[in-house]
Write a structure and sequence with these properties.
The complex is a heterodimer of chains A (379) and B (781).
Chain A lengths: L3 E8 L3 E2 L10 H16 L8 E5 L11 H9 L6 E5 L5 H14 L5 E9 L14 H6 L7 H12 L3 H20 L10 E2 L5 E2 L11 H4 L21 E11 H6 L6 E10 L9 H12 L8 E4 L4 H11 L12 H4 L3 H19 L3 E8 L3 E8 L2
Parallel strand pairs in A: 3-4, 3-5, 10-11
Antiparallel strand pairs in A: 1-8, 1-9, 2-8, 5-8, 6-7, 9-12, 11-12
Helix pairs in contact in A: 1-2, 3-12
Chain B lengths: L5 E4 L3 H12 L4 E5 L3 H6 L5 H12 L14 E5 L12 E4 L5 H14 L5 E4 L6 H4 L5 H5 L1 E6 L8 E6 L5 H14 L3 E5 L7 H18 L4 H7 L10 H9 L3 H12 L5 H5 L4 H8 L12 E5 L5 E6 L6 E3 L13 H5 L4 H18 L9 H12 L5 H8 L1 H10 L6 H6 L5 E4 L2 E5 L5 E3 L9 H7 L4 E2 L3 E5 L4 E6 L8 H14 L9 E5 L11 H9 L3 H19 L5 E4 L2 E4 L1 H8 L2 E5 L2 E4 L13 H11 L8 H12 L3 E2 L2 H6 L8 E3 L5 H14 L15 H16 L5 H15 L11 H16 L2 H13 L6
Parallel strand pairs in B: 1-2, 1-4, 2-3, 4-5, 5-6, 7-8, 17-18, 18-19, 19-21, 20-22, 21-24
Antiparallel strand pairs in B: 6-7, 9-10, 10-11, 12-13, 13-14, 15-16, 16-17, 22-23
The chains are: A alpha+beta (379), B alpha/beta (781).
């Protein structure tokens, strides 16, 4: 069987929705800039790409139609490249990577771009036309539950206090701020030219001066009697990400720099009212399939939808905190839904390279009650 | 010349407020101020003063801007780099420090860059025009006048205009007309005398009111209980008003008046430096903007808030007391000053001096008594000007009483010789001239007042809550006359009667309807007392009947074969807003406060408000696609009882449509509405076709309910908010309909009735109505 590798990763800077630097950029343009940059960075000829797979959690409006194919056109990919848009909410672009990996193993192509996009400014969360099934809403309260409430449920179920969440969130900002100050994001970020000509090359969500004390003054955001605040939630974010997924043979033949091999993948469902728990069963499956245990992991990118969510996953799986989100997580960097999966998987792969480590896990929770996980291995 | 662009120099409170209001009217305006020394020395944004002023105004409440977008018409700059930009400006307003030297230097610079024929005016309130013009060119003097705005410029209607001996008539007319028509101000011509009209008389009044309170041993609460509403003055009363204006401002105004008033002016006699006020200012008690004033609110250790007032004798704060004076309930000014208690005596002492002072100032400060009265009404929000007040006392009675007290009778009261200052002759309002002859009050062209029509004619029809008036040219006017213009069955009956009288608009004497009144508020909504009465005794069929009757009436208005134009000013809430939504067009006063606020009393818009907002948002071409965005927009407006705080915001909320008009000057509203109605007749008006709509039904309701439950968890919605919001969601989503089914306007009316009625059966709603009737405030249950 063919080995599947990640041979390239880049992303746009991530900025706060509705007030950051990317609010005026169309999501298809944003993703196209990142896709174009990926090809330039890796040196791969666009004609070699089988399919452009784009994850997007709310594929409507400016990220509607089949936005993947349209992004390919804007990015100047040859007409021969196909395009498909995939939705697994927050797991969308990790799913894009999994689909590429599966296709390569099926001998259905050698090279894919697995990307993700979300402008939470220009297409609101829930979309423009939320129309839930009234009967399902009655019988399955989690089906359409606000993500914040699922976070509150985790806080109750696993007894994680507000102060603990705030310490965790402040640490995420501190790690991200330090990484930014030391230029550790520069290699992965594709600068974006926004309307008006300004070039945006730095992340915009990180607040270096955030402390547990400043967070303690915020009001609960979802439940007036709850523990979760805007400060312990990932912010609404605009951003795009892209990875080059190909067979190991293709990478060797084209002289590509391989970041990591994809060793195992998994998805798993869970109770929707605690959707943030999803990474636990998904990661367990992936670890089993890779034949390793959590102790074997050197690098962990565990998405921070909420502090309490990421903390639950870490506790339940027994993560070593020193190995988790070493450059900060989504609470500090931002969480442009459809773009996050390719970011954390691409990031985990590049960290294996940068840190000279062997095994990595990227995992995230998914609204509606799911988790998704990927095990990577240094080559 | 027509004014198409303006500039304001000086970005203080007045200058920036004037610039904002010019922008409100859609006119581009430069706002320039100095380059601060710190910026000159250390670098930075050289226009920081003007920019900061604009940013601050965007956060000020009440808002200087009628719409946030208006701010983009104000271009900030500084007087060192940007004066050349004024070369194309038609009107330059100077609102810099009240220092003649600074103004002189600025005028020379302006004169060098301005275009020939442009007008320059000063917003000075203290410096005489002849001093302002010292050392200026002949040409400058011809193009110069004083335009004195009142604070805040958007909300205060008075504009005092002063011409100099050399001012070109055309320059003065151009500015006066612009301020009247475009900015909506009541322009009053004043002589070049200290304090012009309003501040001259207003300052005297306040000094007299403070003096007499201290001398007569009244508490601040007692003085304010008399020198407010009973006199037809703002309900704050004198001390409350000083708190609002700022205690520290009062000595400044006095000082400037004293420096320029004639030597024998009576203000010099009554002026006193108030040691208590000076002490308060020194300690930071400058009024509402400071730590407090004559009144303050303090927090007790247990967190409760308590209102306190200053004891005028001891200078210490104590708990606020409710004044109990019989005189405060006196009916009419004469009864007030004749009340035997200390309140009545206080009223007489204050009014006898102030009215005497005012009546001695014509023609010294203005040509007519009417100008003085108008200035006090518009500039100080007096319900009646001083001469109108003397008329209420009786000029003869007033003269006799002064004589009996051995006091001099003022000049104009002598001229009146027992006759009133105003009379109605052959239906026309006339005022007494300085020569003792009556002259008609002439309204400017384009001004039509319902009050003038009412003086000159009899109503076409009338009942306890509404009247119909013939306003000429075949236009009928419906006027509400109920308390607060609350809508009741009589108003509905009169509206149906108007529709009947006009008929097809062709065969009878009338061809169009205007709905207008001159009360402060167009209508605050349905009469809740009536509704509560019916609900309390379980007369639900009657409640439903009154909803149905309103719906039928508004439907008849919407589909009438003739055009109807609603011309609202002030508040148009609930049912008052629904009338706007069912009129063929709206000509709105710019100061319109409109919204569907029914949820505040636990019900929903039942006279077609839900229906119209859904239809309008659905038809809105600028909205995102799909069935939900229009419902979400209507739901947000109704479930949060959102009120537009200007006609421009009402346009954003689709309460006004593209073809609806906005009038800045209240006095021009009726004429503009009538013209709009006649234009629609001339264009061959036909009734609109009933609209059919497809709504998503339960799916949309589920989505809206999920949002409401989220708000409830966040603590933003109360338990009964959830109940009411779900009823609103049911109506807006079309009830049990399906997206494939076509619904009519009547189907939506039926849903409104059903859900309205269901809400009136909940205790939460009954509690809300009771609370509103008792306290005037919404209950958050």
């Amino acid at each position: 069987m063919k080995n599947v590798v990640i041979a390239g990763y880049t992303r746009s800077p991530f900025h706060l929705a509705n007030k950051g630097e990317l609010t005026r950029v169309r999501p298809d343009d944003l993703a196209a800039a990142v896709v174009k940059s990926l090809l330039e960075k890796t040196g791969v000829d666009g004609a070699e790409i089988e399919d452009l797979i784009v994850g997007c959690a709310f594929p409507e409006g400016e990220q509607g139609f089949n936005v993947a194919k349209l992004i390919g056109m804007i990015a100047g990919l040859p007409k021969s490249v196909a395009g498909t848009t995939v939705n697994r909410f927050c797991g969308s672009s990790m799913q894009a990577i999994h689909m590429a990996a599966g296709a390569i193993r099926m001998n259905a192509g050698e090279a894919f771009i697995a990307a993700g996009i979300e402008s939470m400014t220009r297409v609101p969360m829930m979309g423009f036309n939320p129309m839930p099934n009234p009967a399902l809403a009655q019988v399955e309260p989690g089906a359409y539950m606000s993500m914040g409430i699922t976070a509150e449920n985790l806080s109750k179920k696993f007894g994680i206090s507000r102060a603990e969440q705030e310490a965790y969130a402040a640490l995420s900002h501190r790690k991200a701020a330090q990484a930014q100050a030391e230029g550790r994001f520069e290699a992965e970020i594709t600068p974006i030219t926004v309307p008006g000509g300004k070039v945006v090359s730095k992340d915009g969500c990180i607040r270096p001066d955030t402390t547990a004390e400043t967070l303690s003054t915020l009001k609960p955001a979802f439940d007036a009697t709850g523990t979760v605040t805007a400060g312990t939630s990932s912010p609404l974010t605009d951003g795009a990400s892209a990875t080059l997924i190909c067979s190991e043979d293709f990478a060797r033949a084209h002289g590509l720099k391989v970041l990591a091999k994809i060793r195992a993948i998994a998805v798993a469902g869970c109770d929707a009212t605690i959707m943030g728990y999803g990474p636990v069963p998904a990661s367990k499956k992936a670890l089993d399939r890779a034949g390793i245990t959590v102790k074997d992991l050197d690098i962990i990118e565990s998405n921070e939808a909420f502090a309490v969510q990421s903390m639950t996953v870490a506790r339940e799986l027994g993560f070593d905190p020193e190995k988790v989100n070493i450059d900060g997580g989504a609470i500090a960097l931002g969480h442009p839904l459809g773009a996050t999966g390719a970011r954390i998987t691409g990031k985990a792969a590049s960290l294996l390279q940068r840190e000279g480590k062997a095994l990595a896990l990227s995992t995230q929770c998914i609204g509606g009650g799911q988790g998704i996980a990927t095990i990577l291995e240094a080559v | 010349m027509e004014i198409k662009s303006c500039a304001v120099i000086g970005a203080g409170v007045m200058g920036s407020g004037i610039a904002a209001h010019i922008a409100n009217a859609g006119i581009p305006v430069f706002l320039l101020d100095i380059v601060p020394n710190a910026v000159k020395e250390q670098g930075g944004d050289r226009s920081v003063v003007a920019k900061t002023a604009i940013e601050k105004m965007l956060k000020t409440d009440p808002a200087p801007f009628m719409h946030k977008k208006a701010a983009s018409l104000v271009t900030p700059g500084n007087i060192e780099d940007d004066l050349a930009k004024l070369a194309d400006v038609d009107w330059i307003i100077e609102a810099v420090l009240e220092n003649p030297q600074i103004k002189h230097d600025l005028y020379k610079k302006l004169d060098a860059v301005r275009k020939p024929g442009s007008v320059v005016s000063s917003n000075t309130s203290t410096i005489p025009l002849n001093i302002l013009l010292q050392g200026q060119s002949e040409q400058f003097a011809q193009d110069f006048c004083i335009t004195h705005f009142f604070n805040p410029p958007r909300y205060m209607r008075l504009l005092e205009i002063v011409k100099g001996p050399q001012t070109r008539a055309e320059a003065l007319d151009t500015v006066a007309r612009f301020c009247d028509v475009v900015l909506g101000k009541g322009v009053v011509a004043c002589k070049d005398t200290p304090g012009f009209i309003a501040n001259r008389i207003g300052t005297y009044f306040m000094q007299a009111a403070v003096n007499e309170a201290i001398d007569g041993g009244l508490t601040v609460e007692e003085a304010d209980a008399i020198s407010g509403k009973p006199m037809g003055l703002p309900k704050t009363g004198t001390f409350g008003l000083i708190d609002l204006v700022g205690l520290d401002l009062m000595p400044l105004i006095s000082k400037s008046l004293l420096s320029t008033l004639p030597q024998d002016d009576d203000y010099r006699r009554i002026f006193r430096e108030n040691p208590l006020a000076m002490k308060m200012i020194a300690e930071g008690y400058t009024g509402r903007k400071g730590k407090g004033g004559f009144y303050r609110q303090t927090k007790l250790p247990d967190g409760k808030r308590v209102r306190e007032a200053i004891d005028l004798k001891t200078g210490e704060y104590r708990k606020q007391q409710r004044a109990s004076l019989d005189s405060a309930n006196a009916r009419g000014l004469r009864a007030l000053v004749e009340s035997p208690d200390k309140g009545g005596q206080y009223a007489w002492r204050v009014l006898s001096q102030s009215l005497t002072y005012a009546a001695d100032l014509v023609p010294q400060i203005a040509d007519t008594v009417a100008a003085v009265d108008e200035a006090m009404r518009l500039g100080y929000n007096w319900k009646f000007g001083p001469f109108e007040m003397i008329d209420q006392l009786g000029t003869g009675w007033f003269a006799e009483k002064l004589k009996a007290e051995g006091k001099p009778v003022p000049h104009m009261v002598e001229v009146a010789a027992g006759r009133p200052f105003y009379r109605v002759e052959a239906g026309t309002l006339e005022f007494l001239g300085t020569d003792g002859a009556y002259r008609p009050v002439v309204r400017p062209e384009g001004v039509l007042l319902l009050s003038d029509i009412k003086r000159a004619s009899k109503p076409v029809a009338k009942n306890g809550s509404a009247s119909l008036w013939d306003i000429g040219d075949g236009v009928l006017c419906l006027e509400f006359t109920s308390k607060m213009n609350a809508l009741d069955p009589d108003i509905m009956a009169m509206l149906r009667k108007a529709i009947g009288i006009i008929g097809d608009g062709k065969s009878g004497p009338f061809k169009a309807l205007v709905i207008h009144n001159e009360a402060p508020n167009f209508s605050v909504g349905a009469n809740l007392g009536l509704a509560l009465f019916a609900i309390n005794i379980g007369m639900y069929p009657q409640v439903e009947q009154s909803i149905a009757e309103g719906q039928e009436t508004y439907k008849a208005l919407k589909f009438a074969p003739f055009p109807s134009v609603a011309a609202p000013s002030g508040m148009a809430l609930g049912g008052g807003c629904e009338i706007l939504l069912h009129s063929a067009a709206v000509q709105a006063h710019a100061e319109l406060y409109a919204g569907l606020v029914e949820v505040g009393v636990g019900v929903l818009p039942g006279w077609g408000g839900c229906k119209e907002l859904v239809l309008r948002h659905t038809a809105n071409k600028k909205r995102p696609g799909g069935p939900m965005p229009p419902l979400a927009a209507a739901f947000e407006a109704i479930s949060t009882a959102k009120v537009a705080k200007s006609a421009f915001e009402a346009r954003d909320m689709l309460i006004l449509r593209g073809h609806d008009g906005i009038t800045f000057n209240r006095d021009r509203l009726l004429a503009d509405a009538k013209k709009k109605a006649l234009d629609m007749v001339a264009a061959g008006y036909t009734a609109p076709e009933p609209v059919e709509i497809r709504l998503p039904g339960p799916a949309a309701k589920a989505a809206l309910e999920l949002a409401v439950e989220g708000f409830a968890l966040q603590g933003k919605a109360t338990p009964h908010d959830v109940v009411v919001s779900k009823a609103v969601a049911t109506v807006l989503s079309g009830g049990d309909t399906d997206i494939t089914r076509v619904m009519t306007e009547d189907d939506l009316f039926a849903l409104e009735r059903e859900q309205f009625l269901a809400l009136t059966k909940t205790t939460g709603t009954i509690e809300r109505i009771e609370h509103m009737l008792e306290t005037g405030k919404p209950l958050r249950n």
